[in-house]
Design a protein that fits this description.
InterPro entries: LysR-type_TF_proteobact-type (IPR058163), LysR_HTH_N (IPR000847), LysR_subst-bd (IPR005119), WH-like_DNA-bd_sf (IPR036388), WH_DNA-bd_sf (IPR036390). It comes from Paraburkholderia haematera. Keywords: DNA-binding, Transcription, Transcription regulation. This is HTH-type transcriptional regulator DmlR. By secondary structure, the protein is α/β, with parallel strands linked by helices. Helices cover 55% and strands 15% of the residues. Helix 5 links the parallel strand 3 and strand 4. The N and C termini lie far apart (76 Å).
């Protein structure tokens, strides 16, 4: 049994007040929802829900279990969404050094779109035609000035 899934299913049954509504909201077969709750009850050794042909009620043990597990489920949701959002929206500092010709022709024109697309990235832009020490100057990216290498 996937205990975390069973806890989520149990919580949804409690919140929905019925197995059928919980199954619909979870997009699961009713038999699967019922089986997961039954397996969770067997695992715990207590009855969490009182079932009749007309309704489902939460037992005192079920209410206590729901209260404690709902906090855990909320914490897991927060952790998951924190990691998911961290990967969806890049953030941090990006230090770029670029040659003056490339800066005025390419980067300066593209910078507003980049900042609009990635508002959580702080761009530190250095414009120079000198040799840059990536490690010593803590630069992430260098776009050197174009040089002519024509041979005669």
């Amino acid at each position: 049994m996937d205990q975390l899934l069973a806890i989520r299913v149990f919580a949804r049954v409690v919140e929905a007040g019925a197995f059928t509504r919980a199954a619909d909201s979870l997009d699961m077969p009713l038999a699967t929802v019922s089986k997961l709750v039954r397996l969770l009850e067997l695992h715990l050794g207590v009855r969490l829900l009182q079932r009749t042909t007309r309704r489902v009620t939460v037992t005192p043990e079920g209410a206590a279990y729901y209260e404690r597990t709902s906090r855990v489920l909320k914490e897991i949701e927060d952790i998951d969404s924190g990691f998911a959002s961290a990967h969806q929206r890049p953030r941090g500092r990006l230090r770029i050094d670029i040659g003056s010709a490339n800066a005025s022709c390419v980067l300066i024109l593209a910078l507003p779109d980049f900042i609009a697309r990635y508002p959580d990235i702080r761009v530190d832009l250095g414009v120079s035609d000198r040799q840059v020490d990536l490690i010593g100057e803590n630069v992430d990216c260098v776009v050197p000035a174009a040089t002519s290498t024509s041979s005669r």
